[in-house]
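Format notes (please read before filing issues)

Several people have asked whether sequences and structure tokens are stored in separate files. They are not. Every record keeps both together, in the order shown below: the sequence lines, then the token lines. Line labels are part of the format and must not be stripped during preprocessing.
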Amino acid sequence: MRLGTLARDGLKAFGQLERFLALVSLFTPLLLIGFNTWTVNGTISSYYSMTENVVFYVPLTVAAMLFVVNGVIRNKHWYNTVLGAALLGVIVFNTDTFHPIHLLFVAVFFGGNAIVMLVSKAAISLKVAIVVAAAIIFTGAGVGNGHWIFWLEWASLAIIAAHYVLDSLSGRFVDLYHAPARSAAA
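Then the structure lines:
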């Protein structure tokens, strides 16, 4: 077997792992709620101090490393390395002790992901559908308990997971969505 075939097969398997981990990351807030005696906190970041805090640290660290590895392996997705580093900053600099630093990393992570999605090469109808779905999640779930930041973060995670899955599937079924990429000359 040729080296190029092995590398291609490895990247294909990694793409499947990326899609799976993106979907797992989507449900991390549900795990946090479940392991916190079904209590919804004000933000995802506030779960760092719950009794079973491994449920906070492990999935978010895996997600951060998913971003970093994606950025390194797929050189055209350099921004994922930045987003992964920002998510690691969110995890390491907890919201209580390092509040201003924590907020900076939160802004880079969520704001950066929003920018990536907005500049992606996708049909406007697909972008609108993703945003509308996130708005429905945000509005429907946040009405009852007033923890609107938590629900907004979860809706943002839904957008990020959709971006990851759609970008990894582009060209396989229908060429509807591509993340922004560096030109070949770069």
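For reference, the curators noted about this record: The radius of gyration is 17 Å. The chain has a mean pLDDT of 80.
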